[in-house]
Design a protein that fits this description.
Strand content: under 5%
Strand order of the largest sheet: 2-1-3
Number of helices: 10
Helix content: over 70%
Number of strands: 3
Structural class: mainly alpha
Order of helices and strands: EHHEHHHEHHHHH
Length: 320
């Protein structure tokens, strides 16, 4: 097939999960509920952290930033998919596809960087508890969050520029429900060697660096915990990073599986299922992991619940 210049491509076709109209209606309801649960759950985490003075610590500061990143991550892809399911459409504009690529990579990389920063925070808290307040100063934490954002932008911008330079063949059907970068790279008719180098280089740098940081942090943490003589002390030390470790395994397990299946596998259905796992299921489960395994978060949520009930009672009493 002759490649057509990208400027002449007006839209891409997102094949989605199914062509069955009845099943599309079921999926619309399911994914809409998942999206609302994710957004509301992460907003509750942010509200609990901001409203409870006991949670005004660096660990919960990073957690609230991670919740913001999760909201941005899921909002990049799911609203468009819900709109297509509702209208039975498969199209996405060229500009919309490029914006999806840019924001998808931005928030995905930001999630990864923040998880690495949170692992370092747990490393300092467990291995250097007496110097924690000195090492993890508010200035350093602000710089770490800013550095995570800058690195995520440096990862997102080249993806955007690279895809914008591709020439696509006449078949611009994307076998997924969003513009996933590996799928777009497959559709490009030119720059074959360049795009392969690009994929592995950026995966190694922006994926390998946070993973290496997390592995190093937890190697130090495990070594420090094993040196604690009492079993209760070991359990208490490990419980402080149990929620974070669960989220790390969930995020990287699903993301690596989806990324590898997008590049290697030609089974579109398997690729889309793995994409659903890390674009929807992981951000939805994160608030549950942190709230169910964290007593401070549960207490803050209970206080929010009682405050809302008191406010409702006050409004009802003043209305009569």
């Amino acid at each position: 097939m002759e490649p057509q210049n990208l400027t002449s491509v007006l839209e891409f076709l997102l094949l989605g999960l199914t062509d069955d109209l009845d099943l599309q209606l079921v999926l619309f309801g399911l994914f809409l509920n998942m999206y609302l649960i994710t957004v509301l759950g992460n907003l509750l985490i942010i509200l609990a952290v901001s409203s409870d003075p006991h949670l005004h610590t660096l660990m919960y500061f990073f957690l609230s930033i991670l919740s913001l990143a999760d909201i941005g991550f899921i909002s990049t892809t799911i609203p468009k998919m819900l709109g297509n399911l509702q209208t039975h459409s498969k199209s996405i504009s060229y500009a919309g596809c490029l914006m999806q690529v840019a924001f998808f990579v931005l928030f995905c990389c930001l999630d990864s960087m923040l998880l690495a920063v949170m692992a370092y925070d747990r490393l300092v808290a467990i291995c250097h508890p007496l110097h924690y307040s000195i090492i993890m100063s508010p200035r350093l934490c602000g710089m770490l969050v800013l550095l995570s954002l800058v690195l995520s932008l440096l990862d997102s911008l080249p993806h955007y520029l690279m895809v914008s330079q591709f020439n696509f063949c006449t078949d611009v059907k994307i076998p997924n429900f969003f513009c996933e970068p590996p799928q777009l790279f497959k559709l490009a008719c030119d720059h074959t060697s360049t795009k392969n180098i690009f994929i592995f280089l950026f995966a190694a740098v922006f994926g390998g660096l946070p993973v290496s940081g997390i592995l190093y942090s937890y190697a130090r943490i495990v070594s420090s915990i094993l040196g604690i003589p009492s079993a209760s002390g070991k359990y208490k030390a490990f419980s402080t990073c149990g929620s974070h470790l669960s989220v790390v395994c969930l995020f990287y397990g699903t993301a690596i599986g989806a990324y590898c299946s997008s590049i290697i596998s030609d089974a579109n259905r398997k690729v889309m299922v793995t994409s659903v796992m890390y674009t929807m299921v992981t951000p939805m489960l994160n608030p549950f992991v942190y709230s169910l395994r964290n007593r401070d978060i549960k207490r803050a949520l209970w206080r929010l619940n009682f405050c809302s009930l008191d406010l409702e009672c006050f409004l009802l009493s003043t209305s009569f």
